[in-house]
């Protein structure tokens, strides 16, 4: 694979900030590249159209690599695709992509162990735990929004009702997702006030008993160390109250301060999705994130004529070819992002119109087949790219959700829709006939949902719904309780 093709593929998975850094480095490295400041500031010599002196075969493998299945069958997201180099293409040294965008040259990575890693932020630490959490794709979408609302101290600074309205979700769905996030490390994260933060930490230590819960309702007395008032409130001795105050004082009121501060930098969308007057959707690239560069062909012509040695002429020709290829790759990247975003919008039209409950099951293969592009290309395009929609700002990869097959070969059901159906069945079950997991499987099967019993149990537990035996006991206790 040529260095130019490596470059084109690498550009696909860069975020807009990483792309800006990379282009900035290329502007410093290549004397034939310059910024395009617009027609009003462009000099006469720069208006000349940039074109290679002869057609180069690089564009053909680039398009073929992105739009056909020319990738290694065992490639993953982290692997680079393998494309055969045309026979007439000269060999070129491989580029050291470990330094892409840094402005550094090639060579060994001497002293790499002496380079300090950037401190992990609280959001990065919490996000890394999402992959092991028992969350549905829809809950992960909600979790991503909640994570963005956590401040550096670890507190959730968001109105759940406002987020629920924006996402088209219910308050109960957000509360259920929040309950899972509040079990993340560090203990106390995602609390909405100091009392909840301390309660989460005590729960993690298995010390949140009724007396401690009562004490947390009067933190003003704890701050004043009013032992007598707290003893009367909790029904304990002064010695017990003293030990409980010491436990509370040993907790961390701001669990997020142990992590690196989050850089104050807003996420800039790569694509805007807006509702059109006819009820459809208008999809457009964010032009502010697209680098504007051009090749100074006039300068190339001038210096190539004055080159005195074969090495100088080869260097100038290489700079010119690399500059043209970079511009071609940037154009290919922009068109690919727009194509993928358009298909995602078409597939998830119901989500954009009605909310998170209408998120369709979707995978990379469905998008790749629809736009005649390779699955690995779609995977790269959807990484670190954001879409601004009427429902909020989302990373493209969050629109891909798991599917549950239908009986009889019908259309698959989204996991969230099945979860809602399970919740509805349990909420409406008769107190005298509590539904077991097997019974729920049978009911869903009659509705065309092909689901296993263990999946029903997994979804039920994720929604914090007790088993049928526990629900039966609870309802028996409620039935035996005297009415007032």
Rounded mean pLDDT is: 79
Question: Which regions have little confidence, pLDDT < 50, spanning 5+ residues?
Answer: 40-60, 69-116, 480-484
Helix content: 40-55%
* Content-based structural category: mainly alpha
Distance between the ends: 79 Å
Tell me the Rg in angstroms: 29 Å
What sequence of helices (H) and strands (E) makes up the elements? HHEHHHHHHHHHHEEEHHHHHEEEEHHHH
Discrete helix count: 21
Overall 3D shape: flat
Strand tally is 8
What portion of the residues fall into strands of 2 or more residues?
5-15%
Major β-sheet, in short? Answer: 4 strands, mixed
Strand order of the largest sheet: 3-2-5-6
What is the topological layout?
Blueprint (H helix, E strand, L loop, with lengths): L2 H11 L2 H14 L3 E3 L23 H9 L54 H6 L9 H12 L11 H8 L3 H11 L12 H11 L5 H7 L2 H6 L2 H8 L3 H12 L21 E5 L5 E5 L7 E3 L1 H10 L3 H38 L1 H6 L9 H7 L4 H7 L4 E4 L2 E4 L7 E2 L8 E2 H13 L9 H10 L6 H10 L5 H13 L4
Parallel strand pairs: 2-5
Antiparallel strand pairs: 1-4, 2-3, 5-6, 7-8
Description of the molecule:
- By secondary structure, the protein is mainly alpha-helical.
- The protein has helices spanning 3-13, 16-29, 59-67, 122-127, 137-148, 160-167, 171-181, 194-204, 210-216, 219-224, 227-234, 238-249, 297-306, 310-347, 349-354, 364-370, 375-381, 415-427, 437-446, 453-462, 468-480, and strands at 33-35, 271-275, 281-285, 293-295, 386-389, 392-395, 403-404, 413-414.
- A 4-stranded mixed beta sheet has the order 3-2-5-6.
- Mean pLDDT is 79; it is low at 40-60, 69-116 and 480-484.
